[in-house]
Structure formats: C-alpha cells, structure tokens
Amino acid sequence: MGRRRFLMYFSYIGKQFSGLQRQITRDRENQHDVTTVQGLLEYALHRLRPENEVHVIPSSRTDQGVHALRSAAHVDLDFKWNFDSDFLTHSLNCFFSQTGVDVRVLETIEVSPHFHSRHLPQWRQYLYRFAVLNNASLLKDNKTANRYVVPLPITEAFRCHFVYDPLWDVNIARKATDIFVGTHDYTSFMARSKGVPPNLKTERTILSCELSPGRPFLPCDISKDWTFWNVRVRGRSFLYKMVRRMVSSLLALGGKKMSKTDIRYLLENPSQDNWPNYIHTVPGYALYLENVYYDPKDYWIEAPVLSTSQEGEDGDGIGEGDDEEEEEEEEEEEEIREIGMNKSSLEERS
Fold first, then answer.
1. CB 250 within 8 A of CB 177
2. Of 30, 139, 306, 307, which alpha carbon lies 20 to 30 A from 155's?
3. DSSP of 166-205, one letter per residue?
C-alpha cells in the first residue's frame, strides 16, 4: 500500500520508564529498548509487522519520572494491506493494556509525508504540581524527619512535589511569574548535561507562566493538610531542566530564599555558574508535559520545514528532560527508583 506517515498523540506515567528517548540506538530490529517510551512505542509497532523499520520521532523529550498528559510523535509505516488510523490506536492500546504499562495512545491521525512532530509545534505546555503544608502542628523539630513522618496522600506518590513550609507565601511567588514571559537567555536555568552542542542557542521565548490553585487527584482526610498549586509554562521549546528550575526559583521566592532581583539577575547574566547551589532543582516526578499543539493546517503541509524550535535531536538544541544530568540532585536520588523492564518480561505478559 506504500509508506504513510502518522501523528500519534499519547500519554504516559513516567515512573516506570528511564525517560522518553530511546537509549539503545543499534540494531533496533532485534534489540528494542522497552525501558523508554519511545522504545516501547517502536516495539509495539514492530509487532504489527510493517515492511519498514519502525522509527518513532517524538515531539519532545522528557526525563526519567516525568509524565505526559498529551505528548506527540510521528512515525512512517508501510503495510501490504490497507488500514486506518483507528487500527493503530486500537492495536497499540491493546498491547499496552495486556502488558500492564502506563502508556495510552489518545489519537492517531494520518498526516503529510512532510509533517514533522518536532519541528512544527506552535507551542508546548508543561505543568508542575506541588503542595504546601498548611498544618504547622504536623511539623517535627527534626526538619529532615518531616519528609518521612508527616503523612502524605498515597495517591500523590511520584505525582506531586511536597513543600514542608507553612509560611510559604504564594502571593510573593505569583508576582514573579511575569518575569519569565518574553524572550530571555535561559543559560542560568539550564542544568549541565552531557552532549550539549557547543553552538546551542539558549534564548527561549516563554508565552505564558502562571501559578494557580491546584487540587489533589483523589481528595482524602490527609490531603486537607496540604494546599495544592499548579505552575503552567507555555513556550515553543525549552532547555534541559529549564522548567524545573523556573519552578524552583518560584518556590525559593515564596520561601524567602530568593528575591525577584535574584531571578532577574539570572536572566540578565546568563551563565550555568550563576545558578545558586543552595536552591535544589525540584524533582521530575511532579512535572507533566501537558500539551503539544499543532496548527491543524500543518497536518497536510506540502513541503518540509526546517527546525526553528531548537528542541530535540533534529534541531540544534536539547529539550526539557533530555540526557541524564551529570550531577543528580540528592532529593531525586532518594525519591526516584529505577524500575527495569526488559523485552522478555513484556513478551511473557503479551
């Protein structure tokens, strides 16, 4: 029937994956990386026995533990028989359900052979969820013990970042969100990473940054002791851990560990050496890629478009949550555990 290109929208819970981007790059025909979302998608499509080698191109990269509510990727498929988009959605979701992995395809759309999932997004939006303790009586004298003694809603495990500071001031933090809007050099907010291109452009345009009330996934008695908040950041592309450091600065501001002047200094004096060592980067498990938006007119674009977003392997930049950082935060090392999934275990369950 000939090769056809498809755009897939999908969601996943990142806890059981080592990230979105495939880690194994050689011999994909016989060695599939099912510890990553991209590798798992390729393996699931490979099981449908297309004529061509399957190569999924994701729109964005997310790090270990990061989730996606609506991510996107495109793939070229060549089958000898005719099929529609719903067949792919149904087949992939059946496989994911049978194998017990937390990935679901939301929608599959046939697109132009010139469509590119990474080059064409109008914007990407990230959501960061955190909760602030509002019941000071639960705090212990030993600050370190609070993380393990103060009750947390089990439904929020690896879904939300908890702040043990009843004095945290949302009004102070909210007044600083406008500082990020516009075009700035975000070098100070980019974590160090292996393989960063030497000519990486670090200017990014933030379309919106909002701090608004959130809510627990499943309200319970314990959740009443916490006030939930959402930070939403929308832009065309992002640097490595840029969103998480933006959130970290807002938390530090509300906790009176930073000032608006400090944040402006980081933006006006871009350098990776300027990020303050006393501000820990918030963990990835509370970060969600909330949406990747395309202009529907681009679904059937008539000519290739070169990347201008600077995000991902096909551009000249790296995206939010790209390669593993050399210096992992102590908090993440304590709270994030790798869960290995190998090909044989998937085959046994499928």
1. yes
2. 139
3. TT--HHHHHTTGGGGSEEEE-GGGPPPBTT--TT---EEE
Quick: pLDDT tens for 30-47.
Answer: 577 888 999 999 999 999
Greatest Cα-to-Cα distance within the chain, rounded to the nearest angstrom: 69
- Burial of 154 from C-beta contacts in 10 A (0-12 / 13-18 / 19+): exposed
**Across-strand partners of 233?**
126, 209
Let me know: does 65 contact 15? Beta carbons within 8 Å.
Answer: yes
Give the three-state DSSP class for 226: strand
CA 272 to chain centre: 21
Return d(Cα 240, Cα 318) in angstroms, integer: 6
For 57-73, write each residue's pLDDT tens digit. 999 988 899 999 999 99
Query: Alpha helices of the chain — where are they, by DSSP H?
Result: 37-46, 85-99, 143-149, 170-174, 242-254, 260-268, 330-335, 343-349
Q: pLDDT at position 307, please? A: 59
Q: Are 40 and 13 in contact (CB under 8 A)?
A: no
The CA-to-CA distance between both ends of the chain, in Å, stands at: 28
Give the residue ranges of the chain where pLDDT is below 70: 1, 24-30, 195, 306-350
